[in-house]
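Page 37, continued from 36.
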């Protein structure tokens, strides 16, 4: 049973329960089995209410993506080359899931503006650029929501803190000429995409970096740049593909290291009263139970950081 929603309590948005998931293409070997999603949603529902994501409006997608590109994908007029770049064949479910995931991030953005914290159990499709889908990314959900914030005057300086193991090349390209957005990517140097874009701050790390060096990079490279930028809204891509045993990641963090990474980000947001949206981004671990533990650990870190003595929630 989903717990009740007290006033101001964070909730999580999900596109996984939409019919599009059942209709989606068979998963690639890198993706966890579908039972994983049931276990993840069960664990998440024990922590906070889950809401089905509202689909994104096409007009919002056009804030960052070319209308002609969106029209072709909407109609299924894509080439084999484009399907290979995306990572799986086009179906109507690909479009529906993209709209659902991006809608979840926009809904979480609304939550963060009101309560200080917004959560999407999916999202983080950071490889999609203005007119190109790649790397399992059709729509760039974080970029769409960041542009919605700026266009509506809801934020003046937006941080995109991308801690997925892969560089957020699509996000970097979309905001290359936008001084109101700081794109930060801490990623594996020897990993996809092999032709990287240029973020405002790129921190490429070697294979087998491990906990200590990874956390030091956050403290010594990322924290000063963020402090200098002085954002008033933040998106956090909490990729679980930094975890050891990931099929597509090589940084080899432990579960404890991933939790400490998450704790650092959420405690910073709560301490500075920074409205923050977290999206889950990548995770392809050989051991689905470890992946579930990492995902739920991110939720636990968020709730612990934003929980104040006496049961109140830190508002942004």
């Amino acid at each position: 049973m989903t717990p009740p929603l007290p006033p101001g309590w964070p909730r999580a948005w999900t596109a996984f329960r939409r019919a599009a998931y059942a209709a989606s293409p068979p998963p690639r070997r890198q993706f966890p089995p579908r039972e994983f999603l049931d276990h993840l949603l069960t664990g998440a529902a024990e922590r906070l209410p889950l809401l089905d994501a509202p689909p994104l409006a096409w007009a919002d997608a056009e804030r960052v993506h070319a209308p002609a590109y969106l029209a072709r994908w909407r109609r299924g007029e894509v080439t084999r080359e484009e399907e290979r770049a995306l990572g799986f064949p086009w179906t109507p479910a690909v479009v529906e899931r993209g709209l659902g995931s991006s809608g979840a991030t926009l809904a979480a953005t609304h939550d963060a503006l009101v309560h200080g914290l917004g959560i999407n159990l999916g999202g983080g499709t950071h490889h999609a650029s203005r007119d190109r889908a790649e790397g399992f990314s059709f729509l760039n959900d974080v970029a769409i929501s960041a542009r919605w914030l700026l266009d509506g005057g809801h934020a003046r300086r937006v941080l995109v803190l991308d801690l997925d193991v892969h560089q957020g090349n699509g996000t970097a390209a979309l905001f290359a000429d936008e001084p109101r957005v700081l794109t930060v990517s801490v990623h594996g140097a020897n990993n996809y995409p092999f032709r990287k874009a240029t973020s405002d701050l790129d921190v490429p790390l070697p294979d087998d970096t491990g906990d200590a060096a990874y956390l030091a990079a956050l403290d010594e490279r990322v924290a000063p740049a963020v402090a200098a930028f002085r954002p008033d809204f933040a998106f956090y891509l909490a990729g679980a593909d930094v975890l050891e045993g990931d099929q597509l990641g090589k940084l080899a963090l432990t579960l404890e290291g991933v939790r400490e990474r998450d704790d650092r980000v959420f405690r910073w947001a709560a301490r500075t009263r920074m409205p923050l949206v977290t999206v889950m981004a990548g995770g392809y671990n050989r051991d689905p139970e470890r992946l579930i533990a990492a995902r739920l650990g991110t939720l636990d870190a968020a709730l612990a950081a934003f929980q104040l003595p006496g049961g109140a929630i830190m508002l942004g």
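Residues 111 and 223 are 25 Å apart (CA to CA). Flag for discussion at group meeting. Residues 12-306 form a domain with the Arginase; Chain A fold (CATH 3.40.800.20).
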